[in-house]
Amino acid sequence: MSETSAPALGGRRALPRNASNAAEDDLPTVELQGLTPRGFNLQDYLNVTNVHLFKERWDTNKVDHHTDKYENNHLIVRRGQSFFIQIDFNRPYDPRRDFFRVEYVIGRYPQENKGTYIPVPVVSQLQKGKWGAKVVMREDRSVRLSIQSSPECIVGKFRMYVAVWTPYGILRTSRNPETDTYILFNPWCEEDAVYLDDDKEREEYVLNDIGVIFYGDFNDIKTRSWSYGQFEDGILDACLYVMDRAEMDLSGRGNPIKVSRVGSAMVNAKDDEGVLVGSWDNIYAYGVPPSAWTGSVDILLEYQSTKNPVRYGQCWVFAGVFNTFLRCLGIPARVVTNYFSAHDNDANLQMDIFLEEDGNVNSKLTKDSVWNYHCWNEAWMKRSDLPVGFGGWQVVDSTPQENSDGMYRCGPASVQAIKHGHICFQFDAPFVFAEVNSDLIYITVKKDGTHVVENVDTTHIGKLIVTKEVGGDGIRDITDTYKFQEGQEEERLALETALMYGAKKSLNTEGIVKPRSDVDMDFEVEKAVLGRDFKLTITFQNNSPNRYTLSAYLSGNIVFYTGVSKTEFKKETFEVTLEPMSFKKQEVLIRAGEYMSQLLEQGFLHFFVTARVSETRDILAKQKSTVLAIPKLIIKVRGTRMVGSDMVVTVEFTNPLKETLRNVWIYLDGPGVTKPMRKMFREIRPNSTVQWEEVCRPWVSGPRKLIASMTSDSLRHVYGELELQIQRRPSV
């Protein structure tokens, strides 16, 4: 059998898959048909001497297409909208006898029917929705064209050629990287699937390169700025590389549904060597702790340059990088935080917490976890694959939680479909519905093996869903876009619809929900500061004329923000006697020495209080989390805050702890002001201060931010930021 270098296509395709934007084959410069007569001279026909793309930042093309912020010397345009080019010929162009066209090619095996080879004819009038080139100016040997692309065009980097017709075939310009043209999604074009009709929202969800991500606890919401940096040098190519790495067919790259689904799989490295390795075990050897990242730029550039997944990420890092990917390509996107997010493995709409008869949590049976918060993304697009009314914001989640169609990815799932319980619509709507709608169920496991439901909390999960407000750094509550208010008729109808479409909500218990106890219990955790003692106060209320005795149990745990417990650091039992119609408070002191040695990077402490009423055998249970207040980095600036002018940035940190911090890294970032950088300090002694100075020269005017983070062996999640107003450089 003879060997051949030709690809084995199995007889099913004429050409191999076209799945790489970077791969290319040059088109021939001469395509002659048949024999040419003696005396035939190419110079007798129209020849291209130069092509001008008007690709400077101040040129009309980039300004009109809202691509003037990209740090990229090539022409970048948005699909479905006209742009200008100029072609210089060797002689004046005569439309009666000269025929030419512009060609755009992407990938290695261009085909017109796949949209990877696009011949653009010269027409007398441009038509909406179609490729075309119209001559708008003829001057001496130059022709200026207005070129309009299709609003369904593939998104990526195209090679451009000019082809001239002769009686004997085609003469084509040589491959010239300078004329390469990027075509992006266009939220300003009504025919584009990502069209967004509000100008302020387009400014926020496409053009804003600095965001705010909310984290912490429902009762103690914290914020951190994130540098999306979608316009930074090299980021657009890095985003295209992500799709190449996924081997995504080029013909599908004009569909935002497919692009966002591929992106949700590729931003995590779980099963496809994607961008980020997730780690939730507090061990970050050979990588950067998730809390140290200040933005997406370093992550995407490292991934493209090393061709290896970057270590490490957690949900807000995945969401931040995915937001950069979507906005860079032109898909409107935002980061969303869901407080008390259910990670329900079988999407059965219930989070079962199993208790022993003495009130302790049975960790072997309790498999579901409630994340204190979880970040995902929303992307704006039409859903032509769904019935009318389910377009708009779509949930896309790149944190690797559950397998979807064989890969760790999630979405796009219509937010509108989730709200109304239409979980039959693709993709992954049942999982997202469970994240925001599950019930928290406390079940006592009896010694004889029977289960008794003690309490059902229908309001704990999906307590608050937020995103950054448009045009500011404040918080915007979007809970009502995901769910109706508890108790409303619409809420009950949405749940019934979800059940009809296959959501499971059967209680695997042998008992029924018990009637309410005569005794109420609640507790409050004092505002806690890292490294200091604080108090926890439990209140017992007797609402009956009877006297009761209670056996109470307090468990304090250090937990990951995902709700998974690392270790129990506090255990206390006590007896309480309640007189008729009375209440009693019990204070418990939590000492710093009890939690500091085991603390995880986000400073989450979780308290679980259970009590058994001796006379009635009723079980009372409550759980709450608290986030320790962590010290901040201070950023100062000296010098003129102007484009092109040097200014000195100082990052300062004082160690408030009683222990020495070792292997300290401080990170600094600020899109348009400084490239991401970092500096190491071997140690910071207790109560001592370190300073780091850098000279920065801003290149973008307007409102900007400097963002800093700090990480060490024993203290992480330390942030600081400073808002700046950078002035334009005065024109001479």
UniProtKB/TrEMBL annotation:
Catalytic residues (positions): C315, H374, D397
Taking every annotated instance into account, which residue ranges of this chain make up the domain Transglutaminase-like?
A: 307-400
Task: Please give the family membership noted in the entry.
Answer: Belongs to the transglutaminase superfamily. Transglutaminase family.
Annotated residues that bind Ca(2+) are located at N437, D439, E486, E491
Q: What is its EC number?
A: 2.3.2.13
Predominant place of localization: cytoplasm
Cofactor annotation: Ca(2+)
The name this protein carries in UniProt is Coagulation factor XIII A chain
Gene Ontology terms for molecular function: metal ion binding; protein-glutamine gamma-glutamyltransferase activity
Which terms under GO biological process does the entry name? blood coagulation, fibrin clot formation
Chain segments carrying region Disordered? 1-26
Q: How is the cofactor bound?
A: Binds 1 Ca(2+) ion per subunit.
Q: What class of enzyme is it?
A: transferase
- What's the gene? F13A1
Query: Where in the cell does this protein reside?
Result: Cytoplasm; Secreted
Its quaternary structure? Answer: Tetramer of two A chains (F13A1) and two B (F13B) chains.
Which organism's genome codes for this protein? Panthera leo (Lion)
Q: Which domain of life is it from?
A: Eukaryota
Alphabetically sorted, this entry's keywords are: Acetylation, Acyltransferase, Blood coagulation, Calcium, Cytoplasm, Glycoprotein, Hemostasis, Metal-binding, Secreted, Transferase, Zymogen
> Which PROSITE patterns did the record assign?
TRANSGLUTAMINASES
What Pfam families does the entry give? Transglut_C, Transglut_core, Transglut_N
- Reaction it catalyzes: L-glutaminyl-[protein] + L-lysyl-[protein] = [protein]-L-lysyl-N(6)-5-L-glutamyl-[protein] + NH4(+)
What is its biological role?
Factor XIII is activated by thrombin and calcium ion to a transglutaminase that catalyzes the formation of gamma-glutamyl-epsilon-lysine cross-links between fibrin chains, thus stabilizing the fibrin clot. Also cross-link alpha-2-plasmin inhibitor, or fibronectin, to the alpha chains of fibrin.
Gene Ontology CC annotation, any one: extracellular region
